[in-house]
Design goal:
With about 450 residues, the chain is α+β, with helices and mostly antiparallel strands. The protein is built from 15 helices and 20 strands. It is found in: Mitochondrion.
Length: about 450
Amino acid sequence: MSLRFKSTELQCFNWFYNISPCFPVNSSKVNIITDPGKFYDTLCERFKNANRRISVASLYIGTGDLEKKLLDITRENLMSNKTLKLDVLLDYQRGTRGEVNSRSMVQELVKVAQDQCKLSLYQTPRLQGSWSKLLPARYNEILGLQHMKLYITDDSILLSGANCSNDYFQKRQDRYIEIEDVDLANFYQELIDEVTKFSKQDCSKNETQYSKETLIKDVNKNIVSLIDKWKKKQTVKLSSANDGTKDTWVFPLIQMGEFDITQDEDATCNILSSAPKGSYLRLATGYFNLTENYANTLLKICKANISLLMAHPNANGFLGAAGPAGGIPHAYSLIAQKFWERVVDTNQASRILMLEYERPEWTFHAKGLWYYPPGSSRPWATVIGSANLGERSVKRDLEAQAAIFTISPQLQERLHKECEMLHRHAAECGAALQSRQTPLWVQATVSLFRTYF
């Protein structure tokens, strides 16, 4: 049986069934969160009421009061429910920065429930050997990070680009979609488990040591096997099922360029290439630095109308940072300026729109895309997750996303409201980019190190 979308609005994306396992769900099981405070409240509620498992994959866990409260809630649940398991996967470099850090925060919890908890810290193979000692703290993080943002409780998975940190719980705008489906939650759990196998185990004294070559080969083999296993499993399930209640389809997308896993990159390029003339793709990224592949696809192949939403320098999370990091907002603005020049030079300013998010006291970290078929005022698909459409997301970081397709008018309306909410604080920025001045040292840095942004 050939799996395919029945709706004509989605048939241009039937190739998705070939690259990723498909998880059919009912739209009522999809919870779209639009506010960082609600994101935090949801995590607190889920961690408080979880019965079997809590699994977190994040860049880091912050050290503020909100994070402490979340861990306290988790501790109370672990103490009262001895069958509950907690898995935490963080990035080693980011998670061990400073004396009080993510690792020390989670270690306090592990002390009281050691048999129920596991803390794993991923380190990019690029930092093996002398590199780990040559590069100073913070700067070693540019070589690659554990960047997935996955929050699993029992049979639900919350996909986001937000870290488990104070800023992301208050006035840093991101995206958050929770889906209740046991198979989908199990898929992402197994993904976390695979990365955990090749990460530093915080309480283990007998870790397996891998050479860089072995690590790259083994991770690729295991992740490809995981994807293939679930593709076969879901294909059998979809072929034998005749359940008319499923109106939404979720396709997980993994990007681990370091290990030659390029699902998300391939899918994104194919979406841009497949969207028919008259359709509308609204894209967002916290940090604008399109790969040459993405830029060429948008400019030379894509037929859809496009809007690109990014952070205004005033809404960039690095604004006001000490040292060279303070130039990062200027760097992303310069990169956007260069892309806009290409848009203008190719006479595509009427098809491609660039927007900046600016909101007093808020920063912008949202990413993904929304697909509006020709003639539709509502999106029929979205991509949600941790990837930023940029160089480091594609080539060095570990990213987890999902493409969600729906024929449900109610879910389409909720997706549209989410998208509109983000754009409520956006303004067209083409002319502003052309007139914006960039410090000379930032220009030099971008020309030399753009692929590390």
